[in-house]
């Protein structure tokens, strides 16, 4: 287990030795790209390398499964901020093979939560408050379908400009191979409709 003290000790040395200098850039993505990607640890360095990206080239939003699950959730808000405030001009949803969200079921997570002390009354309270835990904690069966669904949600968001392409890709976490699910250039509408 990594302790906070070891992180802070490393950080102090990192700053003193000015090791941050090679990473200095602006808040604006140089390649005008915002990426939604899975939080899988295999993608931390692999995804940017596989796409030819360097520090500062893209805004990267990470969550479990690279899923845009709600049109007015934090992922969609982050995409809109990147487009309107940070000059991003394209969106790319990148799922991956062997994703932990593939086949994930709520019962497994809820049983583990109970084993770690979350009481049944808490789960009941959430359900009575209208939280559908079964849906919220269930993954997907096909990474391609999940990516296409997220692309569709972003592409059809009422606040996203029509000229912003939304791409969908799947990466192999073993080799970095990228497969196109949705070519956003094919679905971009030009001008006012």
UniProtKB/TrEMBL annotation:
Family of this protein: Belongs to the beta-class carbonic anhydrase family.
Full protein name: carbonic anhydrase
Keyword tRNA processing attributed: no
Keyword check for Metal-binding: yes
Top-level taxon of the source organism: Bacteria
Cited CDD domains: beta_CA_cladeD
Gene3D superfamilies, per the entry: Carbonic anhydrase (3.40.1050.10)
Binding-site residues, Zn(2+): 38, 40, 96, 99
MF terms in GO: carbonate dehydratase activity; zinc ion binding
EC number per UniProt: 4.2.1.1
Keywords (A to Z) from UniProt: Lyase, Metal-binding, Zinc
Reaction(s) this enzyme catalyzes, per UniProt: hydrogencarbonate + H(+) = CO2 + H2O
Cofactor binding note from Swiss-Prot or TrEMBL: Binds 1 zinc ion per subunit.
Needed cofactors: Zn(2+)
């Amino acid at each position: 287990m990594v302790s906070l003290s070891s992180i802070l000790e490393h950080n102090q040395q990192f700053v003193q030795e000015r090791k941050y200098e090679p990473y200095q850039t602006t808040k604006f993505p140089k390649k005008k790209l915002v990426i939604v990607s899975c939080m899988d640890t295999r993608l931390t360095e692999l995804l940017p390398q596989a796409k030819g990206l360097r520090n500062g080239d893209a805004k990267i939003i990470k969550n479990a499964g690279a899923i845009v699950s709600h049109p007015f959730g934090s992922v969609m808000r982050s995409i809109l901020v990147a487009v309107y405030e940070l000059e991003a001009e394209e969106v790319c949803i990148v799922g991956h093979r062997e994703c932990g969200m593939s086949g994930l079921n709520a019962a497994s997570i809820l049983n583990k939560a109970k084993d770690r002390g979350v009481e049944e009354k808490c789960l009941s309270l959430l359900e009575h408050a209208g939280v559908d835990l079964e849906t919220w904690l269930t993954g997907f069966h096909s990474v391609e379908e999940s990516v296409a669904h997220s692309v569709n949600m972003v592409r059809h968001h009422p606040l996203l400009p029509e000229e912003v392409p939304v791409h969908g890709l799947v990466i192999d976490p073993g080799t970095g191979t990228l497969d196109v699910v949705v070519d956003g250039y094919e679905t971009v509408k030009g001008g006012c409709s």
